[in-house]
Amino acid sequence: MLNVKELEAFRAFIECGSVTLAADRLGRTQPQVGRLLTSLEESLGFALFSRSGKRLRATPEGWRFYKEVDRVMGELQSLSRSAEQIRSGSSDHVRILTAPHVTKALVAPALSSVAREIPNLTAEVASRVRLDIETWITQEQFDIGVGILPLDSPAVESEPFLRTSVVVVMAATHPLTRLKVIQPKHLYDTALVATHSRSLLRQSLDRMFREEKRKPDIRFEATNGLIACELAAQGLGVALADPFVALSSGASGLAMKRLSVKIPLDYGFLYPVGKSRSFAARRLAEAVVRTARDRLPEIGVPASDFEFI
């Protein structure tokens, strides 16, 4: 059985970067933290650190182990908070799992609204990219998730609340901004910014060009939609984007245009199967829907492109 104090010391060392700073965080002495780290390494049977004089550096195995430690310790903290909520008779705590752009565009404003309604509200927000959510959703404790559907997991129930469509983003000075609606042919000889090959947007882009037997002129590739929008705003190319991602990017000088081809994006709530929905989770879901409605004018495309379900 692993020792919780040893795991705390290990996480503090990784996150602080030194035994000295880890000791300060934990309120322990350096020798105490050093002994906890050594004991953990001996218990595990593999090297967590490489040593150069008195300096420790995490090994690749150490970094892999840290990811699991961070997850488990987070769950322990969440369990402690849940126990406190039960002990005090309060149900005003909500654990939220969401994608980064959804946090900024929808969840944070909605959470602010609910906090005004429920003065004693407490919350944990875990942000995961969409490609990782299906893995994390079976490992993390949460009350409500917000993200793009579909999500294939027997551990969750999904409830769509909004259908929107992909938009085209570019610098405000780009020649295509003179058009009200962008057609695929307008992109054929245009420099493009694309997201990575596994993303929904990239797959939609490739399919759109493949159907016309054309090859996209991708000049720059981004790991996510936020970066793609920022690059597009700098005049490096035109990109397909989720409208809420474009809104979240906050990129100066970014123009959004309708795409004539409808590429639907479904937003939905995720709930753990078999778990009752708390008052706070229900209020948050309502607030997210209100926030989405309120932010539509900022996107600058017709309301008919958005369908609340």
From TrEMBL:
It holds the Pfam family HTH_1. Gene3D superfamilies: 3.40.190.290, Winged helix-like DNA-binding domain superfamily/Winged helix DNA-binding domain (1.10.10.10). The keyword DNA-binding applies. GO terms for biological process: positive regulation of gene expression. Belongs to the LysR transcriptional regulatory family. It comes from the Bacteria. PANTHER family: TRANSCRIPTIONAL ACTIVATOR PROTEIN LYSR (PTHR30427). InterPro entries: LysR_HTH_N, LysR_subst-bd, WH-like_DNA-bd_sf, WH_DNA-bd_sf. Residues 2-59 form the HTH lysR-type domain. This is DNA-binding transcriptional regulator, LysR family. Keywords: DNA-binding, Transcription, Transcription regulation. GO terms for molecular function: DNA-binding transcription factor activity; sequence-specific DNA binding.
